[in-house]
Specification:
With 176 residues, the protein is of the alpha/beta class. It has helices at 14-26, 37-46, 63-72, 90-99, 111-170; strands at 6-10, 30-34, 51-54, 80-85, 103-106. The chain has one domain: Rossmann fold (3-Layer(aba) Sandwich).
Length: 176
């Protein structure tokens, strides 16, 4: 991958957000931090991340509200969402899934599990980049193929014309 995975860590608990962001950087990824939902949306819209790791219980825009706005924004829809909260249980997990979260982690999260998720996301981003490059190459090849077909058609027209002329020359009674 030409660039590291870009993660936006969002938590109103500054110590938690900063600690998680530092851990993400230690694993070789890029991490930015927002301490509230509104700031998270501004940062994400200005420079779309690959992943948003969202605390759920924040004042103002909570994690569910941010997730909804991320999923509604065409520029951000591809971003993966990780719910990161002290909340747990089936109702919470259903609500997080309904809000568009891809992964749900309960605080305090196991660093090994978090790193595993980021490794998976890194592979997803790599695959998406390769897919986009192949699609671009396919479009380019299709254009080249179309151009070659036009050239072949023109060559066939010229050959047909030459064959007609040759037939005229070899017909009996044409002085040949």
């Amino acid at each position: 991958m030409a660039r590291p995975l870009e993660v936006l860590v969002v938590d109103d608990n500054r110590d938690c957000a900063d600690s998680v962001a530092e851990l993400v950087r230690c694993w070789g990824y890029t991490a930015r931090v927002a301490y509230d939902g509104a700031d998270a949306l501004r940062l994400a819209q200005a420079e779309p991340p690959d992943c948003l790791m969202l605390d759920i219980n924040m004042p103002g825009l909570n994690g569910f509200a941010v997730a909804g706005q991320v999923r509604a924004d065409p520029r951000l829809r591809a971003a993966k969402l990780i719910a990161f909260s002290a909340r747990a249980g089936p109702d919470y997990e259903r609500r997080a899934t309904d809000a568009g979260f891809d992964y749900i982690l309960t605080k305090p999260a196991d660093p090994a599990r978090l790193e595993e998720i980021f490794r998976m996301l890194e592979n997803i981003v790599k695959l998406a980049e390769k897919t986009e490059e192949l699609a671009r190459q396919n479009v380019e090849l299709a254009g080249q193929t179309k151009q070659l077909l036009e050239e072949v058609k023109e060559d066939i027209r010229e050959v047909k014309h030459d064959v007609k002329e040759l037939k005229k020359e070899v017909r009996p009674g044409n002085g040949g």
